[in-house]
Known about the structure:
This protein has 401 residues and is mainly beta. Helix content is 0%, strand content 53%. The mean pLDDT is 94.
Amino acid sequence: HATLRGGALAGSPLEGLRPLASPAAPASGEPHLAVSPEGRVWLSWLEKRAGGGHALRVARLDGTRWAKPFTVAEGDSFFANWADFPTVLPLGGERLAAHYLWKTGGETYAYEVRTTWSMDGGRTWSPPVAPHRDGTPTEHGFVSLLPAGSGVRAVWLDGRNTMVTDSAGRLVHAEEGEGEMTLRTAVVGPDGALSDEALLDPRTCDCCQTAAVATARGVLVAYRDRSAEEIRDISVVRLEDGAWSEPEPLHDDGWKIAGCPVNGPSLAAAGDRVAVAWYTAAQDTPRVLLAFSDDGGHRFGAPILLDGGAPIGRVSVLLDKDGGALVAWLEAREKEALFQVRRVSRDGAPGPTSTVARTSAARASGFPRMVRSGDRVVLAWTEAGKPSRVRTAVARLAAAH
């Protein structure tokens, strides 16, 4: 179970940390947080329905409490996964976009991305539209959403190439190593029209989260790549002046691993200032690292080590007003895990590590999330249990020293 470590932690970047009564029902998980252009914080999550299936729910933080939640979508065909979670993107005013994953066939990993819109603050939602047109019964997920004109840009991992035609002309799932997971993008308009569809990388790691942010120069995407030699380091691609760059390694960690670590990067940006946090276990040494860029992600500084020696990963990063960063991750501690945060100043100096909550090291504890609105930081995580439940907390971001 998760227990919040409230109060004034010595040297903590989070002042006055206290629980927020969660709007999520028991048997909930997969939280995601987002901030609107006006600074309003939104929480989304999945919860199990009494009669089976799931509902994707969303609530806005009004002052010091969550407003009444609304249902984005519900049914018995959700692809509900501890690591591949839905998101809601507030676009300003009453406009919201959301994505979730929906099963498309009998196969375990046959599911599509669905995007949907609300123009009335989450009360009603449009019929869903998939940002991909391949129609294959394969994996599509690990989505990042960004505003794009009047629409939204989706970036996702796409498994269409994991299907091959056999000798009898039937579509079958490729053997390991034959079909590649790909990274793709498209812009979805409020009318459901697709545009700017692009293949960004033809071979990526199979199930690590993607991250995408808007910079002063365009769009920056980070994800876990996969080389022919099974090096699975973080790569970045950029959209600038209407063109996508070739994938480039963020840093040469050299993590060779035969499977997917299910541990994607996290990005935050303000103008040309970018922070990226990621997990690696290259040379059999688990690490949580942070790097800064001052040119929209063209070049990153040397990685800064943040963890306490036994990180599980599952990172989240935000920028403070001064261009420093706050990073959250899970750290193993005996039979449990600690939801930890650490601030790094603009010049790269790490402050003390603080524990927000104690939770489980199991997959059920999911990925802790955090966002900043002004000097307020809102945090969300899953308290593993029977049943599990989404918990939330709020704090003030301490002034930078």
